[in-house]
């Protein structure tokens, strides 16, 4: 997971400051995402495009340290990058547990910085997905990346960020053009073909379903014939072959 390790930047040694605003119990303007029956299906639907967007993060941030203000609601990297953010929750390094922002009574994170966390909670409750609806549970760093990827994919975020503050890490999503790098079709294809094998080796999912969700989210048009899925983007294409239970057998370029 050397790529994942790059996502942790240097930080100051103290937790970010916060104000005394109380998180809300109900979320207005709830987004009607397609229902996922299981955590695996949710992963198939959103984790691919969410993880894809992380590829830009190390290049944008470099070796800058992070800092954030709950008062100004701005996340900063060094002195020149200042972006809005949403707080999803925190991961304890010592106990290896995850705590959603809406379940943390001591955090005093402003309600408007928890809007995505509350929407995920509601989605989890409506679709019986405990990953999103249980406030506190044993976890690991891979699962934190999974939550970040799902949230980024669902909300169309530019990326997610795991901010290490010493005894724990805070998971946030970011929406800013500074993290969105335009690429030519051929480079989009190269990223797709290199990232997808990493995705299916990291998270449990049906490869065929995940591939279709992923490439469609990236703007490909797909055609399907039994166990073969062809994705086209301009003059570039990818041909993926799967077995009868949806496991990927081969992926190759197609012009």
Keywords:
single chain, 255 residues, alpha+beta, 2 domains, four-stranded antiparallel sheet, 33% helix, globular
How is this fold's topology laid out?
Elements (H helix, E strand, L loop, with lengths): L1 H4 L33 H15 L3 H5 L4 E4 L4 E4 L3 E12 L4 E4 L14 H13 L2 H4 L2 E3 L2 H15 L3 E6 L3 E7 L10 H18 L4 H11 L3 E5 L2 E6 L2 E7 L5 E7 L1
Antiparallel strand pairs: 1-2, 2-3, 3-4, 3-7, 4-5, 6-7, 8-9, 9-10, 10-11
Helix pairs in contact: 2-6, 2-7, 2-8
Give the gist of this structure.
The protein has 255 residues and is α+β, with helices and mostly antiparallel strands. It contains eight helices and eleven strands. The longest helix is centred in the C-terminal third of the chain and has 18 residues, at 185-202.
Overview of the molecule:
The protein has 255 residues and is an alpha+beta fold. The protein has two domains: 2-179, no CATH class; 185-254. The protein is 33% helix and 25% strand. It has eight helices and eleven strands. A hairpin with a 2-residue loop joins β9 (228-233) and β10 (236-242). α2 packs across α6 (141-155), α2 (39-53) packs across α7 and α2 packs across α8. The radius of gyration is 19 Å and the shape is globular. The relative contact order is 0.17.
